[in-house]
Amino acid sequence: MLFALPLQALQRPGRVAKTIRIFLPRPSSIHQSLAFLRLEPFPKPAIARKELMPDQQLTPEQLFAVTTLKGWDLWLGRTTKFFDSLTDEQMFTEIAPGKNRAIYLFGHLAIVSDAMIPQMGLGEASYAHLREAFLAQPDRAAEIPSVAELRAIWKEVHSRVDTVFAALTPAEWLAGHATVSAEDFAAQPHRNRLSILLSRTSHLGYHLGQLQLMPR
Predict the structure, then answer these.
(1) What does pTM read for this prediction?
(2) pLDDT means per 10 residues in the chain (216 residues)?
């Protein structure tokens, strides 16, 4: 396809406006050129949330909640897909010489997700006993579960997290989390449950980026 655009904004006094021609590849070529980015659609959550109708007007609260949840689903799906692609043997590979192994980051991310529930004031953590090994201690400093056990923990934790998230209304997402007092929240309303989810989504992406360096 060919587009001709006048460059009037770049025209100098006494000069005639020129035209720039822009050649765009065919749609099929565009799709092929983007393939290497491995962009993926938003994964479907384990428990279907109450989806808004396409023609329904979104309130600001609904928009904030939906946008944040979509981001979480996206990065959780990508991270899950990465760990699912690793064999049990590859789980013990270091992401770089002398750095964390994949199995440690796998457990670390699962326990961080598990800890979100009490941090949001939505219940107790299921695997608080593993915080010492995956949060307080570095890799190899403590005994950790087997790969098979961690794979089961990952599925259970995120299934529960999704169930808990599905029950929250937009207003409840914008309520204060468990580590902020009512007085502090009145002065700093951004310290809400959505802020925790945004932080944990960024945390997922950070470690997934590290894992891309791991030799395969």
Answers:
(1) 0.75
(2) 39 42 37 34 44 64 93 98 98 96 98 98 98 98 98 98 96 95 95 97 98 93
Same domain, 192 and 163: yes
Domain extent for 18:
2-36
Same structural domain for residues 62 and 143?
yes
Q: How far is CA 204 from CA 60, 105, 180, 216, in A?
A: 26, 10, 23, 20
CATH number for the domain harbouring residue 55: 1.20.120.450
Location of structure tokens 């928009």:
63
| Dist. CA 132–CA 143, nearest whole Å | 10
Number of compact structural domains in the chain = 2
Q: Rounded distance, CA 85 to CA 79, Å?
A: 10
